[in-house]
Amino acid sequence: MSRTARGYGDVGDKTPIQNGFAIPMLADRKEPRDADFDEVKAQVLTSSSSKSPFAGRGDAKPIASGAA
């Protein structure tokens, strides 16, 4: 029977792993929140630099002309 961990130190159901099993225990809990720009800055820079600003142009022209 599976249950949701409610508080620190709560123990979950055993989970089979290679050569035995594991018993999860809640050690830390972080509430959901919006990330600060400083935390995701590297991801934004990597994502924006890997894509050409004109990458979708080939798809957009036929749609704009009504051919699609």
Structural class: alpha+beta
Strand line-up of the largest beta sheet: 1-2
> pLDDT below 50 for ≥5 consecutive residues: which ranges?
none
Q: What is the CA–CA distance across the termini?
A: 52 Å
Can you offer a commentary on this structure?
This protein has a domain at 34-68. With 68 residues, it is α+β, with helices and mostly antiparallel strands. It has a two-stranded antiparallel ribbon. The chain has two helices and two strands. The protein is elongated, with a radius of gyration of 24 Å. The model has no long low-confidence stretch (mean pLDDT 77). Helices cover 34% and strands 9% of the residues. The chain has helices at 37-50, 57-65, and strands spanning 15-17, 20-22. A hairpin with a 2-residue loop joins β1 and β2.
Concise description?
By secondary structure, the chain is α+β, with helices and mostly antiparallel strands. It has helices at residues 37-50, 57-65, and strands at 15-17, 20-22.
Topology:
Layout: E1 15-17, E2 20-22, H1 37-50, H2 57-65
Antiparallel strand pairs: 1-2
Characteristics:
68 residues, alpha+beta, two-stranded antiparallel sheet, 2 strands
